[in-house]
Design brief:
It is built from ten helices and eleven strands. It is α+β, with helices and mostly antiparallel strands.
Length: 313
């Protein structure tokens, strides 16, 4: 691995259209020069975001290795910005995919969401097992590898790690971040831990299944009883209720969510990652896509990054 702290994005990549915005930074399409590999690059200004926060996100993404967590291929530290090159999934985010489905086909049958529920639960458990709290779990931050999310082969990944923090079984966090519609009761009190992610996952899945948010504001979160639509399978109702339990102590943790009968029988297809290959998966046309970049591009890292993830508080 080369010990280059600084480089230029345009020396190694062709940058295309803007794809969207994250918690910190703007995301563009890009391709390694001389290749047709589709990637995405998140460009974060050192002026607009604390450098420690940018470094935290970049360092953490480089350490992640899970089929339902966004892959990071390259980090380039420029003079005024940090460029994080990641895998690009063609289906947009889960909210966009939901809206397309609602407009063309109506609400999802609950049974058609099991593969998505399982992948979300897997990503949550992977992070929580590593003492990482995402703090902004929502449909916008799950990216899809195809537009037809009802397809059982659809892969989703959790992205936007600009709000992550380290946690422990005994520590409580008090920072304000994320999106209020997904806040749990303890998040509103700014006294929370891992289970804020579980609540947010429950809200995300409730929206997916029912096409509406379960709560509108802090009062709803504190007092409103969750109502399920007629015909929703009992196991699905119990799955959602276990994540939307108002008492933090009684709410399921990531291991319990992953083991719930509603999703326990479903297993995410493994995505194989070989040395020098970014990833292999099937797109909407069912043709296999193999993405590869040179060792020179994939090896740049910030040599002096901390070996521990800063908490950001």
């Amino acid at each position: 691995m080369k010990n280059r702290e600084y480089g230029r994005l345009l020396d190694s990549y062709n940058v295309g259209n803007m794809l969207g915005e994250g918690t910190f930074g703007i995301v563009f399409a890009c391709k390694p020069i001389g290749q047709e590999t589709d990637c995405a690059v998140k460009i974060v200004s050192k002026v607009e975001a604390p450098f420690d926060k940018i470094k935290q996100e970049a360092w953490l993404l480089q350490k992640m290795n899970h089929p339902n967590v966004i892959k990071c291929y390259d980090v380039i530290y420029q003079k005024h910005a940090v460029c994080i090159v990641m895998e690009r999934l063609r289906g947009g985010n889960l909210i966009q995919a939901m809206e397309r489905h609602w407009e063309s086909k109506g609400n999802f049958p609950a049974m058609s969401t099991i593969h998505l529920c399982s992948q979300m639960a897997s990503s949550m458990h992977y992070l929580h097992e590593r003492s990482i709290i995402h703090r902004d779990v929502k449909g916008d931050n799950f990216l899809c590898d195809r537009t037809s999310i009802e397809d059982p082969q659809c892969r989703i990944v959790l992205g936007d790690f600009g709000t992550v923090a380290r946690g422990s079984a005994t520590e409580r966090l008090r920072g304000k971040c994320g999106t209020r519609l997904y806040w749990s009761p303890e998040f509103y009190k700014f006294d929370y831990s891992f289970k804020v992610d579980i609540w947010a996952m429950g809200v995300t899945l409730f929206v997916l299944i029912y096409g509406r948010f379960p709560f509108r504001d802090e009062r709803d979160v504190a007092t409103k009883i969750v109502r399920h639509s007629k015909g929703t399978p009992t196991e699905c109702q119990d799955f959602l209720d276990s994540m939307l339990e108002k008492e933090e102590e009684k709410r399921a943790d990531s291991a319990q969510v992953l083991a719930h009968p509603w999703i326990a029988g479903w297993r995410c297809n493994e995505v194989q990652h070989d040395k020098g290959r970014l990833c292999t998966y099937s797109d909407d046309s069912d043709s296999e896509v193999s993405t590869q970049i040179p060792d020179d591009v994939s090896s740049r890292s910030f040599e002096n990054a901390s070996s521990e993830i800063p908490c950001g508080f």
